[in-house]
Amino acid sequence: MSATELRDAILKHLEYSQGKDLAHASLYDMRMALTLAIRDKVIEPWFRATRATYAAQSKRVYYLSMEFLIGRLLEDAIMNVGLTESAREAVLGLGFDFEAVLNDEPDAALGNGGLGRLAACFLDSMSTLGCPAYGYGIRYEHGLFRQSFGPDGRQIETAEDWLRQSHGWEFERPEAAFRIGFGGTVAESGRSAVWTPESAVMAKAYDTPIVGWQGKWANTLRLWGAEPLRAFDLNAFNKGDFTGAAAPEALARTISRVLYPDDTTAQGKELRLKQEFFFTAASLRDILRRFASEHSDLSALSSRVAIQMNDTHPAIAGPELVRLLHDERGMEFDKAVETARACLGYTNHTLMPEALERWPETLMAQVLPRHMQIIERIDAGHARQYPSRTVSIVENGEVKMGELSFIMANKVNGVSALHTELVKDTVFAELHALHPDRIVNETNGVTPRRWVKGANPGLAGLITETIGEGWEDHLERLVELEPAIGDQGFRDRFAAIKAENKVALANWIGTEMGIPVNPDAMFDVQIKRFHEYKRQHLNILETIALWQEIRANPDAGWAPRVKIFGGKAAPGYVMAKEIIHLINNVARIINADKTTRELLTVVYPPNYNVTMAERLIPASDLSEQISTAGKEASGTGNMKFSLNGALTIGTLDGANVEIRDLVGAENFFLFGMTADEVVECRKTPDHAARAIAQSKRLKAAIEMIESGAFSHGDKAMYRGVTQNLRTHDYFTVCADFDSYWDAQRRVDRAWFQRDDWTRIAALNTARTGWFSSDRTIKGYMADIWKVAPMI
Ligand SMILES: *Cc1c(COP(=O)(O)O)cnc(C)c1O
User: To 5 degrees, how large is the angle CA 82–CA 85–CA 89?
Assistant: First the structure.
């Protein structure tokens, strides 16, 4: 499609979809018209994919995820259908700034962090590979909260409202609606049971086409919105009770109203359980309806249907599928369990006990009475089959969703090599012994279309010039860059692209935050959700210690640094919010020190999201991946940084292990204890006090916080953080501090060998093509789903 043709298509939508002529079109109108013109280009591969799948009677993949952190779609879709240049020219020709049009799109934050972003990268890769697939989730009215900082530096949360404007990508499907019940009673009837729910809502489908690289294939992201069965109570309204009349509607819509902002903690809330059942049950009904339109023999279900549970959030899929097969379609119970299991896969994302979902048995029995019975029967069946086992799904009055997912899945996967081994040795050790073939590893990945080509066009151009076209969907080809890295000319180009990205980021930080930063300084970046295990406090303690040493000894060869933080804390996570508060105040004090200004700046732009990640990562020199070993299941931020030519300072945790193996130990700043050593360390009750006593820098940094230096003299302000470090320090910040400090000084020395730094940065790009989510999805297709690509 030429720029002229696209221009005509935009004008047509401006006129007939937006009802505007060009002279009166706003930025919003232009963005919507461009979105609709691009969406038109996606329809053809979308229909073609559906027809081809139908004609081939292919097995389909159903990816069930409570979260899809998709971010903006327009730039990505334009790139995938190969219209970037035409679109730029067309929009410019119509008198609009192309970047401004792209930036007008809201960032769809239907997820918290890594887990939701993984689901979004998987959608892109499944479409790129021609894997017939549907993503199923919830159409939250409000995505992840918007973060700002108060004048005192504390996090402020406000509701996000991406759906205030109409969502240009989606198609409403009123005909695809299912009644989802809750509560009520169960009556035995012969060999099965009849569940009569007490209340119900409608789940209505909204479809977004997701087009793959080069527009060869498009899958569907189907999100469910909750609606009342009946709009509102006209009788109450007529009697003047306007609020009462609207109450049932409000209650029903509550189910898809907000994304739970909790990251890695289980939420014991009835609404959360209802959300999980709501989208899982609607998806399963949709899946069975589609199956029934092509086949009649339900015992063949698993030859046509692969359902992936992204974490335990959709774990109710096991019992619900059994219920649909047994109660509603008359399949014998044990066969229904076998059939469901043959369809289901479960991805584990965390080992942390507080993050493994457990529901009180009483709540489960109250909200989903029939499912509670089915869970008990599955548990009993498993016990009968393995009489020596001690593990069970229901224990101490709680339903353990991890165990339920494991027992109801034919494959259980971890998300990095280390994590998968820990899954086998810790959380699911006994179940693994009983089912030794069930656990497999599928190391996470990221889509190179968004995270390299889209986010870093300069680097993408250099890659194409050096190794030719076609690396975007064969990212392992980046190894072909390696011979070129020996050329001074290539390294200079690589360094110049990084420098350009840094100038752009420095300008943005200047405009957005009013803080001048030197683009020649090292950009040292830690962006991710705030959590104690991710240890942003280790980073800020080192920052304080560094500032003190620079003041004491200004000429000791410090590498000039801009420390950049980004990330949100769950609103109820007090400790994480205190750490945010501390970082903002440390930044305020350090940035005001004129004597260290040239060497150290700390910036923390608010509201980290996908769009900000796309801006920051290509401009980063140093990637902070400093979690307590054994706690970060994989990480995907770490992969985005390496691909974009940042060096990593990190622990042996999650996929850091694989990154280090690939880029070479000599090209990775390793520090800290291993997962085993962390477990050992915790056996010494006063490990933190000992570490503080042994480290004068750490001691001074903690004491400086306690002196009130960052809190206008208020000595008690950060007691929560410092007391925890001194006494408990479960995440071993203190024990790892000196090792981290030393690694940072190795970073300083490496920074001054600038050409060598660039060489290592380029090696990071060349050697991490393995982290394409295409490779991950090929693994799922071969090992778990048993689905062949259609292109
Ligand atoms: C990649 C990404 C994450 C995950 O980052 P980790 O460092 O792996 O925790 C979280 N949020 C956003 C917006 C991302 O793009």
Answer: 140
Residue with the smallest CA separation from ligand 1 atom 14 is 610
Spell out the SS3 assignment of 381-402: HHHHHCCCCCCCCEECCEEEHH
In angstroms, the CA 39 to CA 513 distance is 35
Q: Determine the Cα–Cα distance for residues 15 and 21; give it in Å rounded to an integer.
A: 6
**Strand ranges in 78-198 using DSSP code E only, listed in sequence order:** 108-110, 133-138, 146-149, 155-158, 171-182, 185-189, 192-196
- Given a cut of 50, the residues of the chain with pLDDT beneath it are none
Rounded CA-CA distance 738/324 in Å is 57
Q: For residue 109, give the ligand 1 atom closest to its CA.
A: 13
Instruction: Please say whether the beta carbons of 161 and 211 come within 8 A.
Output: no
Backbone conformation region of residue 102, classed left if phi is above 0, alpha if psi is from -120 to 50, else beta: alpha
Q: Is there a single domain that holds both residue 572 and residue 647?
A: yes
Check if 474 is active-site: no
Tokens for 693, please give them.
């006593």
Determine the length of the chain.
Answer: 791
The model carries a pTM of 0.98
Residue 754 lies in a domain: yes
Return the DSSP state at 772.
B
- AA identity, residue 332: E
- Supply the Cα-derived Rg of the chain in whole angstroms: 27
Which residues span the domain enclosing 585? 465-674+737-766
> What is the rounded distance in angstroms from the CA atom of residue 607 to the CA atom of residue 148?
6
Provide the pLDDT for residue 127. Answer: 98
Give pLDDT tens digits for 654-673. 999 999 999 999 999 999 99
From 414, 444, 474, the end of a domain falls on 444
Helix (H, G, I), strand (E, B) or coil at 267: coil
Concerning whether 274 is annotated as a catalytic residue, the answer is: no
Query: Quick one: which atom of ligand 1 is closest to the CA of 614?
Result: 15
Say which CATH number the domain at 309 has.
Answer: 3.40.50.2000
Please report the pLDDT score of residue 238 as a whole number.
86
Helix (H, G, I), strand (E, B) or coil at 67: coil
Q: Are residues 397 and 520 in the same domain?
A: no
Do 513 and 550 fall within a single domain? Answer: yes
Query: What CA–CA distance (Å, rounded) separates 642 from 766?
Result: 9
Cα–Cα dist 127/63, whole Å:
13
Domains contained in the chain, number: 2
Q: Is 636 a catalytic residue?
A: yes
- 520 and 402, same structural domain? no
404 shares a domain with 477 = no
Residue 549 lies in a domain: yes
* Residue whose C-alpha is closest to residue 129's, from 779, 780, 774, 787: 774
Please tell me the distance between residue 122's alpha carbon and the centre of ligand 1 in angstroms.
14
> Per the domain annotation, does 434 fall within a domain?
yes
Is the Cβ atom of 264 under 6 angstroms away from ligand 1?
Answer: no
Same structural domain, 512 and 413: no
Does the CA dihedral 746-752-756-759 come out positive or negative? positive
Instruction: Examine the domain organization and report whether 415 and 474 are in the same domain.
Output: no
70 belongs to a structural domain = no
283-332 confidence digits (pLDDT tens): 999 999 999 999 999 999 999 999 999 999 999 999 999 999 999 999 99
User: Is 424 part of the annotated catalytic residue set?
Assistant: no
Domain check: are 506 and 360 in the same one? no
Sign of the CA dihedral running 261, 267, 269, 273: positive
Residue nearest to atom 3 of ligand 1 (CA): 114
Say what the pLDDT of residue 279 is.
98
Give the per-residue pLDDT at 262: 86
